[in-house]
Amino acid sequence: MTAITPALWVQEELLAGRSLQPTQEQATAYAPANIALSKYWGKRESQFNLPLTGSLSVSLANHGTHTQLSLIDAADHQVYLNGVEQAGESAFVVQLKAWLSLFLPTGISLRIETRNTIPTAAGLASSASGYGALALACNELCGWQLDYTSLSALARLGSGSASRSLWHGFVKWQAGEAANGHDSVAYVLPERWPQLRVGILTVSDAKKAVSSREGMGRTVQTSALFKQWPAQAASDMQHIEQAIMENDFVALGQRAEHNAMSMHATMQAAWPPLVYWQPESLAAMQQVWELRQQGLEVYFTMDAGPNLKLLFEAANTATILQHFPTLEVIQPFADPS
């Protein structure tokens, strides 16, 4: 019996009955970046990019990735990131080509032009919005007419968090149980929170030395604290979803911040230790804690990078900006147009 591979699963199950040939010359798409309130950290299977636990995020409106795909007469794909052509042997291009090879027939070459409106590879989920936009653009280019939940499985094969970057709002990614990951998909939650604000506090926009994928693997393999993480992550996600349903900001903020700090603790207990923070990151955390002691309801979350994402409500925006004047404030539930 032939073992199922991601390419076989994509072509024979996900895209069953659909043509793999592009049906038009060009396609464009946009996908928002997302910030996980309950984090994805650790895989149960790496080939299909399957997580140990589910996760829950909020999308960042007009902060994300714009992608244009064009058919070209060339021997290979051409990849441009923020207007700069990328070397074919770069890790970014190698991974992108591997993802395209899951479904695109040999002999078809694309010019791929991607523009991020967030810093690339600095812990601000640019790979998530990147593969989200690619999945949406390929859906249009090839005329598949897949629904977003099906596309979330395709995007996941490029970047796990990309499964959550197809929608605006709160998005939940199910861990699933199937070996081929057909049930490890995302869907948007119906709840909206117009008063919720996310503030991006950029400590550094430099590419991080250790990628999320590499850091995740090191943590799973070497961190003694990681064995406690899956149970906590599952509990945190349940409580965060409940806080969203009840519009309970304090419960949301407390759980999201604790979840992020716990994830970073597992990294720091890895060997060699993984510390994505910069001194400015820690100073910002301490400032948030001091403001809470003064009665200001503000919390933070952090992914695998040095930058903080502050969580607060609209009524506190002016006060927050007094303390963090360089903060970029995002309204996740603003009209996407």
Question: Secondary-structure blueprint of this entry?
Answer:
Layout: H1 6-14, E1 26-38, E2 43-45, E3 50-51, E4 55-72, E5 78-81, E6 84-85, H2 91-100, E7 109-116, H3 126-142, H4 148-156, E8 170-173, E9 186-188, E10 196-201, H5 212-222, H6 229-246, H7 249-268, H8 279-293, E11 299-301, E12 308-313, H9 317-323, E13 328-330
Parallel strand pairs: 5-7
Antiparallel strand pairs: 1-4, 2-3, 4-7, 4-8, 5-6, 8-9, 10-12, 10-13, 11-12
Describe this structure in words.
There is one protein chain. The chain folds into 2 domains: 183 residues, Ribosomal Protein S5, domain 2, CATH 3.30.230.10; 135 residues, 2-Layer Sandwich (Alpha-Beta Plaits). Helices cover 34% and strands 22% of the residues. The chain is built from 9 helices and 13 strands. Strands 1, 4, 5, 6, 7, 8 and 9 form a 7-stranded mixed sheet that branches. It has a 4-stranded antiparallel sheet with strand order 11-12-10-13. Strand 2 and strand 3 form a beta hairpin.
